[in-house]
């Protein structure tokens, strides 16, 4: 059984870029936790495979019972990741990677998941601004929001909350460290 890996870092630090490379290089190594939702199943969606479907009452009870690592509401529906769904991946022999924010990291630390924590940092906040602008996905408002959140994430990383911090300056160098950490154990 491998320990789950919790990946975090400011938006734009390069987490998705490195995860994409990793999954291309190792297509069969990783498993994904099944999310829970109160949204109705779409045609062809299978309970327990695409999502764990729940009623609003069930979902709210699970929130009360602390079953979630993180949950949120989008367009009137609840979505969340349970501790149990992460355990299920680890028990299946696959490695589970959670890409979550600082609140999620703190929540995982309160569970018995025995996770390893990896933080991806940009070389500087200025480079983060350039990358997010270059990605072309942000409005001036959402850019500022992400940069503010990034500052909070970086301050949290400075407290030593993570097992490893990787600075994504030269992508190939950062990816080599990323891979080494994730495949260790
Ligand atoms: N080492 C690097 N040097 C230059 N540009 C990079 C580097 N790593 C990633 N980028 C670019 O920076 C942008 C942000 O990267 P990416 O989307 O992977 O960030 P992210 O951390 O996954 O953000 P989010 O959490 O918002 O999904 C992308 O356009 C990506 O191509």
Automatic annotation (TrEMBL):
One of its GO terms (cellular component) is cytosol. Coiled coil: none annotated. SMART domains: GuKc. Transmembrane segments: none annotated. Its EC number is 2.7.4.8. InterPro entries: GK/Ca_channel_bsu (IPR008145), Guanylate_kin-like_dom (IPR008144), Guanylate_kinase (IPR017665), P-loop_NTPase (IPR027417). PANTHER family: GUANYLATE KINASE, GUANYLATE KINASE-RELATED. NCBIfam families: guanyl_kin (TIGR03263). This is Guanylate kinase. It comes from Lachancea dasiensis.
